[in-house]
């Protein structure tokens, strides 16, 4: 008799053999530190860019006991607590948007929104490096899909010139700050191109830029003053803010369509009111954290100078081609007291394997100075480590 599970075992063996099996690390989180295998390490692998720890200062002004802690159901049934409405009102007034919608995750926002926006008469033109959740949203839609080379405005322009007239709608999709490369989309130029096409719309995922860039930390579309050109903006609450969930900003007509037809929105349990109220509380505080943002910018410039590379943001990719070499370098840094994870194929293309260093506002120059020493030593001592120039 054949083993019922043999095909699953074979598949897992294949993943293992090609070095792309993923496993969950055992960690305890403690602010900017993680405890891992009995050691305390500086966490350079998270997305908590503002370095918010659960301190009494952060809790000030938040009364958890006045909130419901348990979840109810989808927002369309009984989940739509006042906490949602209050948060959405706050987002509308912060951004000057027509409407806001809070989601349970950025993954659900991207995979739920795009099928609502794009139908068979739609062409989606997206940056080559967009996040998996956007790709899944595109796959679930019935739209035609093509990609432009990463941050290549000329390529975007030529695709639109060739194809835009054949479709009723064209959605241009980009991240504002790219999660694996740490570089920034040329948002002003993209907005300008969009304005040239009466059937074009612009979708910007600000997952990694909210909290870090722009007036009050509202992100890069705010910094570049193109909010009026962005038809859908997605921000996430689980990164700089250290909460969970996401929000989208859009015209009221789109919000009504989303509420009526976005499957992940309709068919999933709403976050409990306490979670939403806490995220709103953090968002309110985040808008006042200019000091933390300033310190983070200081850390970014320090890293650029020390490593001799262009640092665009708090995410710094150190390219180490090859899954094995990259894993080895990460292990080495872990031995030295830094929690750095290798980002390997298939998350990034082959040859682009990397250490993704992620800075947060609670780090100090001294701590970063030490990791720079080690990285520079690695560059000198281990080939083929290569820092992006
Ligand atoms: N967009 C981007 C660019 C992301 O990096 C992520 C998370 N890694 C998401 C969306 C998904 O957000 P969430 O974690 O809230 O599901």
Architecture overview:
The chain has 389 residues and is an alpha/beta fold. The chain has two domains: 18-50 and 289-381, Alpha-Beta Complex (Aspartate Aminotransferase, domain 1); 73-288, Type I PLP-dependent aspartate aminotransferase-like (Major domain) (Aspartate Aminotransferase, domain 2, 3-Layer(aba) Sandwich). The protein is built from 15 helices and 14 strands. Strands 4-10-9-8-7-5-6 form a seven-stranded mixed sheet, sandwiched between helices. Strands 1-2-3-12 form a four-stranded mixed sheet. β5 (122-127), α6 and β6 form a beta-alpha-beta unit. α4 (82-95) packs parallel to α12 (273-286) and α13 packs parallel to α15. It is globular, with a radius of gyration of 22 Å. Residues 381-389 have low confidence and may be disordered. Bound molecules: 4'-deoxy-4'-aminopyridoxal-5'-phosphate.
Please tag this protein with its features.
389 residues, alpha/beta, Aspartate Aminotransferase, domain 1, Aspartate Aminotransferase, domain 2, 2 domains, 7-stranded mixed β-sheet, 4-stranded mixed β-sheet, 40% helix, 17% strand, disordered C terminus, binds 4'-deoxy-4'-aminopyridoxal-5'-phosphate
Compile the SSE list and pairings.
Blueprint: H1 6-17, E1 28-30, E2 33-36, E3 39-43, H2 56-59, H3 75-79, H4 82-95, E4 99-103, H5 106-117, E5 122-127, H6 132-140, E6 144-148, H7 153-163, E7 169-175, H8 187-196, E8 200-205, H9 220-223, E9 232-236, E10 246-250, H10 252-261, H11 263-266, H12 273-286, H13 290-307, E11 315-319, H14 323-335, E12 338-339, E13 342-343, E14 354-358, H15 365-381
Helix pairs in contact: 4-12, 5-6, 5-10, 13-15
The protein binds 4'-deoxy-4'-aminopyridoxal-5'-phosphate.
4'-deoxy-4'-aminopyridoxal-5'-phosphate binds next to helix 5.
């Amino acid at each position: 008799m054949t083993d019922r599970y043999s095909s699953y075992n074979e598949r897992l063996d294949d993943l293992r053999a090609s070095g792309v099996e993923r496993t969950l690390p055992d960690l305890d989180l403690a602010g900017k530190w993680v405890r891992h295998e009995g050691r305390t390490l500086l966490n350079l692998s998270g997305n908590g860019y503002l370095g918010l720890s659960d301190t009494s200062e952060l809790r000030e002004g938040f009364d958890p006991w006045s909130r419901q802690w348990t979840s109810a159901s989808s927002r369309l049934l009984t989940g739509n607590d006042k906490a949602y409405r209050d948060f959405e009102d706050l987002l509308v007034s912060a951004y000057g948007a027509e409407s806001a919608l809070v989601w349970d995750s950025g993954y659900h926002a991207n995979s739920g929104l795009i099928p609502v926006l794009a139908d068979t008469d739609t062409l989606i033109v997206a940056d080559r490096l967009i996040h998996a959740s956007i790709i899944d949203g595109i796959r679930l839609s019935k739209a035609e899909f093509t990609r432009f080379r990463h941050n290549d405005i000329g390529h975007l322009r030529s695709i639109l010139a060739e194809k835009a007239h054949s479709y009723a709608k064209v959605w241009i999709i980009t991240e504002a700050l790219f999660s694996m490369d740490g570089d920034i989309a040329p948002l002003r130029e993209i907005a300008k191109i969009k304005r040239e096409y009466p059937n074009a719309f612009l979708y910007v995922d600000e997952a990694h830029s909210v909290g870090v860039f722009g007036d009050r930390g509202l992100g890069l579309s705010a910094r570049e003053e193109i909010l009026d050109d962005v038809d859908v903006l997605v921000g996430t609450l689980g990164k700089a803010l250290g909460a969970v969930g996401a929000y989208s900003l859009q015209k009221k007509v789109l919000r009504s369509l989303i509420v009526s037809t976005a499957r992940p929105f309709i068919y999933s349990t709403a976050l409990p009111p306490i979670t939403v109220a806490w995220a709103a509380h953090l968002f309110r505080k985040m808008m006042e954290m200019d000091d933390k943002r300033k310190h983070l910018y200081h850390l970014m410039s320090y890293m650029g100078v020390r490593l001799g590379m262009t640092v665009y943001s708090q995410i710094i990719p150190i390219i180490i081609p090859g899954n094995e070499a990259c894993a080895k370098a990460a292990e080495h840094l872990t031995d030295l007291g830094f929690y750095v994870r290798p980002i390997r194929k298939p998350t990034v293309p082959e040859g682009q394997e990397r250490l993704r260093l992620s800075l947060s506002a609670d780090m100090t120059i001294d701590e970063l100075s030490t990791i720079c020493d080690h990285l520079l030593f690695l560059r000198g001592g281990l080939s083929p480590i290569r820092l992006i120039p």
